[in-house]
Design a protein that fits this description.
The chain is 29% helix and 22% strand. It is of the alpha/beta class. The longest helix is centred in the first third of the chain and has 15 residues.
Length: 289
């Protein structure tokens, strides 16, 4: 199938899955335009020569993937993160909104775990193209990725479960992000984020682990408080795991700098800026309404 046909089919199927977003999703077709990104034509050509040109969709961050004889060894061992979440959620027949979904990797895991439909939103177009490639190679599924931000999405649909994985610490107003996630949730909200293992949150001056857009690395208590203030109840932390260079690293499929380059080579318990090294936590709460 041609690249433009893959795009049209994905948007049409997503609109059918979430009819309240029909008009908005139709407008998202404008995001797939060569004038918006210099690599767009290369990505489209890659979609038309799969699996031979999967590397042209670099960088592959979430995975890993197995497409026939091709293994895509992504930057993140996202399967490890999924193994930390899966025991704590029953997704049987759930509709799911995955905020900041990347290439939709977790969507396939959630379908395997019993979810009925997963709709992901992510503004990074190359990740949307990776999802189209995965769909072309694995077959169509009730797993959709839309090129958008949460704040762009109109209110209307409610999803049984809403996930926000690896987004919160990038937000200047994290409480408002959780409130927005809760507004789309019918039953449950899952938040996965960097945290600091102390009573006080960290507000990095400049960069954190070489990342520019990290206004806050919250404490566990702060995330629980935000979830309660957002109208959620039963908020709890179900997992805390330090990020290792086995879980996040550069590979042939993601050739940019990764975690190893962000840690102090003399003291890997600290970042190159002198902050505590990355630790991630998983939080779950129920919607109060």
């Amino acid at each position: 199938m041609k690249g433009d046909a893959l795009i049209a089919a994905q948007l049409a199927d997503a609109a059918a899955a979430v009819p309240e977003w029909n008009t908005w999703i139709a407008r998202l077709a404008d995001c797939y335009d060569s004038s918006r990104h210099g690599d767009y034509e290369r990505w489209v050509h890659a979609l038309e020569d799969l699996p031979n040109r999967l590397e042209d969709l670099h960088p592959w961050r979430k995975g890993p993937w197995r497409f026939g004889e091709v293994t895509v060894d992504t930057e993140w061992r996202s399967d490890w993160k999924w193994q930390r979440l899966a025991p704590h959620v029953d997704l049987t027949d759930h509709t799911v909104l995955d905020i900041g979904c990347g290439n939709g990797y977790f969507g396939w895991r959630m379908l395997e775990h019993g979810a009925r439909t997963v709709v992901g939103i992510d503004p990074t177009l190359v990740f949307c193209m990776q999802h189209l490639a995965a769909t072309a190679l694995l077959g169509a599924a009730q797993n959709y990725v839309l090129p958008a931000r949460l704040e762009d999405a109109p209110m209307g649909p409610r999803f049984d479960t809403v996930l926000s994985m690896g987004v919160l610490y990038h937000r200047k107003e994290p409480l408002e992000h959780i409130r927005s996630a809760a507004a789309f949730a019918r039953q449950r909200v899952v938040i996965e984020t960097l945290i600091v293992e102390s009573e006080r949150s960290l507000f990095p001056e400049g960069r954190y682990a070489r990342m520019r857009n990290v206004p806050v690395v919250p404490s566990v208590g702060q995330v629980l408080t935000w979830m309660q203030e957002a109208g959620l109840h039963g908020a709890r932390c179900v997992d805390i795991t330090p990020t290792s260079t086995l879980e996040q690293r550069s590979t042939r499929w993601m050739r940019f700098e990764s975690l190893k380059d962000a840690l102090d080579p003399q003291d890997p318990s600290r970042t190159v800026e002198g902050h505590p090294a990355p630790v991630r936590a998983m939080f779950i709460a129920e919607h109060a309404g």
